Description:
The protein is of the alpha/beta class. The protein has 2 domains: about 1-70, no CATH class; about 90-310, Rossmann fold, CATH 3.40.50.150. About 45% of the residues lie in helices and about 15% in strands. The protein has helices at about 1-10, 15-20, 25-35, 40-45, 55-65, 70-75, 100-110, 120-125, 140-150, 155-160, 170-180, 200-205, 220-225, 235-240, 245-260, 280-290, and strands spanning about 10-15, 50, 80, 85, 125-135, 160-165, 185-190, 210-215, 270-275, 300, 310. Strands 7-6-5-8-9-11-10 form a 7-stranded mixed sheet, with helices on both faces. α3 crosses α5, α7 (about 100-110) packs parallel to α9 and α15 packs parallel to α16 (about 280-290). The protein is elongated and about 75 Å long. The structure holds S-adenosylmethionine. S-adenosylmethionine binds near residues 92, 93, 193 and 194.
Amino acid sequence: MSIVIKEKENKINFSQVLRSPLISRQESGILMAFLLKISLEVLLTHSETEIRPAVYKRFKLLEAKRLKNWPIAYLTGVKEFYGFDFKVSPAVLTPRPETEYMVEEIVEIIKNRGTGSKEHDKSASLKPIIIDLGTGSGAIIISVAKELKRLAPTIYRRAEFLAVDISVPALKMAKNNAAQHKLARKIKFYQGNLLSPFKLNKRDLSQSELIIAANLPYLTPAQIKKSPSISREPFLALDGGSDGLKYYRELFKQLRELFKQLSELPTVGNLRIICEIDESQAKKIKTLTKKYFPHAASEIICDLSGKKRFLFF
Ligand SMILES: C[S@@+](CC[C@H](N)C(=O)[O-])C[C@H]1O[C@@H](n2cnc3c(N)ncnc32)[C@H](O)[C@@H]1O
């Protein structure tokens, strides 16, 4: 009897949890909804519902981890990206909302093939090969495939979807997500350094349009050191060498070698590329592009807050 009374005394509800916040109300809500296996909306509209002591104890453990910079997505194991849910773990970077722009852009390019300029007409006859370099959780390639399947099913059927990561645990997560989204057979995953897993010959290259999404590690060691919020994410997903451009430099070299097989260097028609960068790198990556692809008309694109975050050509 006394035990029952004690339990009753210990019972609290979510409104009470919010009265002494250590983390933001939004984050408390996400964690509690995750523990209660209900949606955040349901939790917020039933915030007087009692929370069992065992659940409250687990909540406090997660809250303590959050205070030690664990991303919320690692605590719940899920991150929403482009309106889809992706499993995540400390083996992969948690996909960021600004990266959704890459999905939008690629889907637009592919959907609009064959409309507009002569160059675009040329690309319409080519087979689209979409490559996600540094796929991590697989968020980019999976979102592109899902969107194309919905919006341009004929092109989707013709297209190839390839994804690469150097990290074996990241690839495992990406494959898991592809299976979850029923794309396990459509997307091919490769382990390796950038484009090295592919053997593309002259025929492949002249009959295909390579559309490359590259969100490669681009931070400098100094930037990583002064950002506690990313301290729990894989170093391998963040560190881009002394100027942050180590991987983009290597990718451009690999691409130039690959396209040497063709008589002319690629322009629109055989190669489209979109890379995520840090805003401080815009000028330098433009110069790199000019060096490796002198004929490409490259553009720097800003995110919604006006920061220069993407290179596109
Ligand atoms: C910034 S994360 C991007 C993850 C994911 N594409 C996203 O947008 O959420 C970079 C990814 O590149 C991978 N990576 C690092 N070096 C690589 C290399 N040399 N070749 C292929 N992938 C690499 C990392 O393991 C990591 O998953």
